[in-house]
Design brief:
Blueprint lengths: L3 E5 L6 H12 L9 E4 L7 E6 L6 E4 L19 E4 L2 E4 L9 E2 L1 E2 L2 E2 L3 H9 L2 H5 L17 H4 L7 H12 L10 E8 L10 H11 L3 H17 L9 H4 L8 E6 L12 H16 L3 E4 L9 H15 L5 E2 L10 H9 L3 E2 L21 E2 L4 E2 L3 E2 L4 E2 H7 L4 H14 L5 E5 L12 H12 L5
Parallel strand pairs: 1-2, 1-3, 3-4, 5-7, 10-11, 10-19, 11-12, 12-13, 13-14, 14-17, 18-19
Antiparallel strand pairs: 5-6, 8-9, 15-16
């Protein structure tokens, strides 16, 4: 196969979207070195792939013209059909349910891989179909998203498609070891920031069914924290921040505002923030903003919080992740671009783990309003501790089992971004087991 690949398409489609996908593939880490895709360019030294519904001679990707249509399509039932390449499986997004079939037969791809990739990375369903499927926080319910409904969110279907695409074109494809980013959302610094926190904590412990023993533990923990601030259950920064350098990125997200019941921010937070930032920087962490609950749709509020955090960091804040993973694909992204952030890391699940956009690698999200890519990148959030705990109903043994299974399933050909909160490892609950697991799993070096 030649290094230049010319995609020939003379159909009436939205070429901005097709060009976006071609650009995504050209910048994908699994693309063979030196290979480049072009659209409708006359090149002497290139291989041709026809993107069409016509019966032509040569390599063909069939055009579905569903998500590349210039017309807004009504909400439809979509199916993720399974296709085979040896012992590997690849998944489409189509209107018709089909039985398992071969990924490629006699130079013809079995389905429209370009539209499938676009559907996932653009979050097409969340932009066009989410209106009737929002939860109380304004997020599209994961149970209504195609990947979750088809139980495919545990694998990076888009990354696999890119790999399979070049494999079919006879490039020598070797599996690439998965790499990792470690992040932390610091919603609250201390569990006991004042005396009133104690009765609230006792009430919560009783509601959760921990009984008299739980009350004893919480009272004991409170008085221990009075003696030494490092004994506070949420003050985990001495060991939370990792020294390992095998992570692609290490980022800690701090809040700088918030006045709703979903915000844990208080006056004590800013007082202790400089010391926590110092600890993070010693361990080579980047500093990111974790906006307050309502700032995801309020540019003035978000800008004010960014400037306040900037007073403490004394360096440009490039990263952002929305609180509660609240994200309006138009308004939030417009604010992020206007303010000048370089990377968002909000695209993840709030009640499970997995690949919400079908990929673990960073990429430019899509601006449907202007039919172009946004100017910042998205780093998909793949594993969030609170989401997995929610999925496991708080059971730490389930947490460990599911996470190990997930990591084994995805040892190759993707990127995994973790998010561990400092408040997850509460020694007053059975969650202290997760601290041991957290330390052990990263001590073992995930690349080996």
């Amino acid at each position: 196969m030649k290094k230049n690949i010319n995609i020939v398409c003379n159909e009436d489609i939205n070429n901005n979207r097709l060009n976006y996908v071609i650009d995504f593939i050209n910048n994908h880490p699994l693309k063979p070195l030196g290979v480049k895709l072009f659209l409708n360019v006359n090149l002497n030294d290139s291989d041709i792939i026809y993107y069409t519904n016509e019966n032509v001679q040569g390599k063909i990707i069939p055009l579905q013209n569903l998500f590349f249509s210039n017309k807004k399509i009504p909400q439809v039932n979509l199916f993720a059909n399974e296709y085979l390449l040896g012992d590997e499986k690849y998944y489409s997004v189509e209107k018709i349910k089909k039985l398992s079939y071969f990924f490629n037969v006699e130079n013809v791809f079995a389905f429209d891989i370009f539209e499938t990739i676009f559907f996932h990375i653009s979050r097409y369903e969340e932009y066009f179909f989410s209106k009737n499927h929002l939860d109380k926080h304004g997020r599209m319910k994961s149970s209504e998203q195609l990947l979750v409904k088809t139980k495919l969110h545990y694998i990076p279907v888009v990354d696999h498609l890119v790999y399979g695409f070049f494999k079919i074109l006879n490039f020598d494809m070797e599996k690439r070891k998965t790499d990792y980013t470690l992040t932390h959302d610091i919603d609250i610094i201390r569990k006991f920031s004042g005396f009133l926190k104690l009765p609230k904590s006792i009430a919560r412990i009783l509601l959760m069914g921990y009984g008299i023993k739980g009350v004893y533990n919480i009272v004991n923990s409170y008085f221990q924290s009075l003696k030494n601030k490092n004994n506070d259950p949420y003050y985990t920064f001495e060991w939370l921040f990792r020294k390992e350098d095998y992570f692609i990125n290490k980022i800690v997200f701090f809040v700088a505002g918030g006045n709703t019941r979903q915000d844990l921010y208080n006056k004590y937070y800013l007082k202790e923030l400089p010391e926590i930032i110092r600890k993070a920087k010693i361990n080579n962490y980047e500093i990111g903003l974790h906006p307050s609950y309502n700032a995801y749709a309020d540019e003035k509020m978000l800008k004010t919080e960014q400037e306040l955090l900037l007073n403490f960091t004394k360096r440009r804040i490039k990263f952002i992740r929305m609180h509660f993973l609240r994200l309006d694909l138009t308004k939030s992204f417009e604010i992020i671009e206007n303010i000048g952030f370089e990377m968002d890391s909000t695209l993840g699940y709030n009640d499970t783990i997995g690949f919400r956009a079908g990929t673990g690698f960073e990429y430019y999200p899509y601006n449907f309003g202007e039919e172009r890519k946004w100017k910042f990148k998205e780093l998909p959030l793949i594993i969030m501790d609170s989401a997995l705990l929610k999925n496991c109903k708080g059971n730490p043994d389930c947490f460990e089992e599911k996470l190990i299974e997930f990591l084994k399933l995805n040892k190759f050909n993707t990127h995994i971004c973790f998010n561990f909160h400092n408040s997850t490892f509460d020694s007053n609950k059975s969650l202290h087991k997760i601290r041991v697991f957290y330390q052990n799993i990263f001590d073992s070096d995930l690349n080996n």
